[in-house]
Amino acid sequence: MNEAEAANRLMRLAREIARHDRLYHDQDAPQISDAEYDALVRENRELEAQFPHLVRADSPSKRLGAVPTSSLAKVTHARPMLSLENAFSEQEVRDFIGRVRRFLSLPPDEPVTMTAEPKIDGLSCSLRYEVGALVMAATRGDGTVGEDVTANVRTIAEIPQTISGAPETFEVRGEIYMSKQDFAALNERQEASGGKVFANPRNAAAGSLRQKDPAVTAARPLRFFAHGWGDLSASLAPTQQDAMQAIRELGFPVSDLLVRCERVEDALAHYATIERRRADLPYDIDGVVYKVDRIDWQDRLGQVGRAPRWGWRTNSRPRRRRRCWRPSTYRSVAPAS
Ligand code: IVH
């Protein structure tokens, strides 16, 4: 591809990706599959690597997601909410670890211990507690500015209103989601009452959370999984795994499929285990997330653009985004515990 063709393609990719971001994040009405979306993002990334001087001001690689356009109040995050780079293959997972090793100048025999856990297919949310009380809940939005959904989040039973033993300022981040079974029941109720029928649990969760009226959210079966933190007045633990255990002990749901892996082979094996169990899990997942376990290493690794160097995701078997709602797809699964 010559330079003019690359510039033209990058322009089209920026437009197309922005359109799909709006459909997905603002309208909860995706038109393409995750795989198709990831292919566009990947093509953009590869072209930009080949032609770095053609990177556009409005490049999708510079954005963190859709800018919120709803009527909910805007909130600036104390620390930005990042997103994860995709490793598309086993080799790319190894490459990520290789880059971590080189960045930290680790000797070849020093293990890079990682955590591996499911990527929950829901809506990213940051919950801020001050002196043990929930004071703010915000969606990710564009990563810098999100939407204030505090009143709505207060209706979610799995999210504590007060906690004890946390640092004075404590932001826990995670995913608000709907179980497959609750989603099926909700859609059946919606169908019966002539209400909006949702394409999948993720869209149902997003549509239920981003409501002007908290009473609507209260009637929707939303759940929460913590997977990290934002602003903290004191550190939780020296490692990701121990910090997540501390978050669990504070009363937040944390995936029991979160494990610590010393070797890349163990991380890949855990990925295979999660993939095997995927269809039977009571909630939709969107692949696996790997994180460098040592938090002092995470701090040294920092971030590049919109993504941390210490974490990434992988998903070789993406679900369809544009899934037609059929009760049989979701009815026969066990309830989330
Ligand atoms: S870690 C620095 N862990 O995936 C980013 N994210 O692209 C920290 N997500 O919208 C995110 N499950 O909300 C992490 N187990 C998990 C996750 C997870 C779902 C979402 C996250 C964000 C996106 C990252």
Write structural notes for this entry.
The chain is an alpha+beta fold and 337 residues long. It folds into two domains: 3-62, Helix Hairpins; 74-330, DNA ligase/mRNA capping enzyme (D-amino Acid Aminotransferase, Chain A, domain 1), CATH 3.30.470. Helices cover 36% and strands 20% of the residues. The protein has helices at residues 3-26, 34-50, 90-103, 150-153, 180-193, 201-209, 214-218, 240-249, 264-277, 295-301, 327-331, and strands at 74-76, 85-87, 114-120, 123-130, 133-139, 145-147, 169-177, 223-232, 259-261, 285-292, 303-304, 307-308, 311-314. The protein has a five-stranded mixed beta sheet. β11 (303-304) and β12 form a beta hairpin. The radius of gyration is 20 Å and the shape is globular. The protein starts with a helix and ends in a 6-residue tail after the last helix. 36% of the residues are buried. The structure holds 2-(butylsulfanyl)adenosine. 2-(butylsulfanyl)adenosine is lined by residues 82-84, 117, 119-120, 124, 140, 175, 227-228, 289, 308, 311.
